[in-house]
Design a protein that fits this description.
This protein has one domain. The chain contains four helices and no strands. The chain has helices at residues 3-14, 18-28, 30-35, 38-50. The longest helix is centred in the middle third of the chain and has 13 residues, at 38-50. It is globular. It starts with a helix and ends in a 21-residue tail after the last helix.
């Protein structure tokens, strides 16, 4: 996977996009999806992207991510 795509998927996961959350809950169930770490969610999203699962084209940065030190 290209570095640009990896960074983009990481930003999508960290912004907590509702579509990603919905896909996780459909796949693993609500309790198991809430236990996943960010690293596990990023890995799941990369797999979904490479497999061209329906719904990944709707992903986007949900909200602006603050950098460290910003309020």
């Amino acid at each position: 996977m290209r570095q640009v795509r990896k960074k983009w998927i990481t930003k999508v996961v960290l912004s907590k996009h509702p579509k990603v959350t919905e896909m996780l809950q459909d796949r693993y169930g609500e309790e198991e999806a809430n236990k996943k770490t960010n690293g596990q969610v990023i890995k799941f999203c990369k797999q979904m992207w490479t497999r061209h699962v329906k719904g990944v084209e709707d992903w986007g940065i949900y909200k602006e991510i603050l950098k460290r030190g910003e309020v």
